[in-house]
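quick one, 302 residues, struct below
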Amino acid sequence: MGKRIRRAKPICSCISPRYTFVASDYTFSCYEEDIWTEISKYLDGKSLVMLAATCQWFYRVIMEENIWKFACLRDLQVPDPQSVNFRWIKLYTSAFNGSHSYMFHQQEKHIDWMRIGAFFFDSSVAFLTEKLIPPVKITREENVEKMLQLKGSCVLNNIKTGIWIADLQLVRCPVCDLNTCDGTMQTLDVRHIELFLNEGYRDGSWEYKLLGSHDIKKHSDGASGGIFDIKHIRSSSTSEVFDLKSWVGKPKDWQPKAMITLHAVAVNTNLQDNEGIHIKYQAMRAGPDGQIVSIRISQQLL
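---
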């Protein structure tokens, strides 16, 4: 039989020491705005809302613009756009409440979707392409439809700068132009973060316009699409999009894959035996002559 462990002293409760360096007239208050502003940096959106709902004091502190701006930029991992047209809490909600473009329009034709992430348009010029290879030369042809037909890529001007959200959508083919298709369509769907908050979008007066479409009438190994800020197309971060081996699925992996960097987004889905694909490019403007606030690249099997 083993020996018992002998206790030298009885277990006592701890007594907090007195801090002699604290002034006797100092009273700590848990209602310190600076402290809670710092704490809020470690809370997600849901936790911030829950804290704000506890009392009027917390509501006033947590609803400050700088707190929601910090949370939005932190969670989207994008730089500060300097100026926005809506409150940051509304922008945060629009980005993280699970909404996507087909929830507002053509919902009956929607099948599934995947949030890719956020990227940033630093310039007002975009490069759209279905070929995920580094362009040797970018031709700035004004006839976008002609460039899509000849090159499978184009340059798009008057893009609204700032934060953009990227989704991959799967929709039914009745959305498209083909009359004899009963399959589905893959769409790279990107939008400015403020889009869903604009009345012109919500009431349907802003519509997608066709930029161009064409057919590849032979077998295609994959359905790909990429959208780039042309100012940063040669940057090291954007080069990750063109490194297909690092993110595109292996042969016989039919799941869609996506890559997003600070100034670019791309998708690819490997395809089984096929007779070609139909590719369509669309853009939405903020009014007849407004800036472009949303872009779609859609592909479906012929």
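The CA atoms of residues 222 and 270 lie 4 Å apart.
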